[in-house]
Amino acid sequence: MDLSIAEQTLLVLKELAEAGGIGPGKILVVGVSTSEVAGTRIGTGGALEVAEQLLSGVNRAAERFGFSPVFQCCEHLNRAIVMERKLLEQLGLTEVSAVPIPGAGGSMGAAAYRAMTDPVLAETVQAHAGIDIGETLIGMHLRRVAVPFRPSLRYIGQARVNAAYTRPPLIGGERAVYRKQEESGSKLCD
């Protein structure tokens, strides 16, 4: 299979969106090491050109499925999240001050920031799903119960890909029901 980086990204996100029901009203966090995608060690060879290719695939998937992508910066910005101001305000998140650049924020954060209409940074987000390209550790930005997802394509470029979607926590005990039943049972809870 000889797919471009944008096509590889679109394929993985298509599979994730379908498996996790990631569509309108959902947030997907993207963590990327463009260095790893290009075949070097994380933090040693970041490239805006690679980030722009990845961004193309992310944006195509977002248009197709209707989710809102947000982008994790690198550790130099404490893994802050790049997003559109409208989404930040909708979620009631607190803005933090920085402008990501390749050397402080990462190439992916910088490319996403440049491409957005009204970009801002939030300290954190609780996303419904995420894709981690190059093992950048996105878990801090996912909702509490993450379900690992293994896409059919395990690498984008030279970077290993991990993904997850989230689900609500299951609560209750032995009598708890997690799916809507056709008719109510005979046992009452008083």
From TrEMBL:
<comment type="similarity">
    <text>Belongs to the UPF0340 family.</text>
</comment>
<dbReference type="InterPro" id="IPR028345">
    <property type="entry name" value="Antibiotic_NAT-like"/>
</dbReference>
<dbReference type="Pfam" id="PF04260">
    <property type="entry name" value="DUF436"/>
</dbReference>
<dbReference type="InterPro" id="IPR006340">
    <property type="entry name" value="DUF436"/>
</dbReference>
<protein>
    <recommendedName>
        <fullName>UPF0340 protein G5B47_07525</fullName>
    </recommendedName>
</protein>
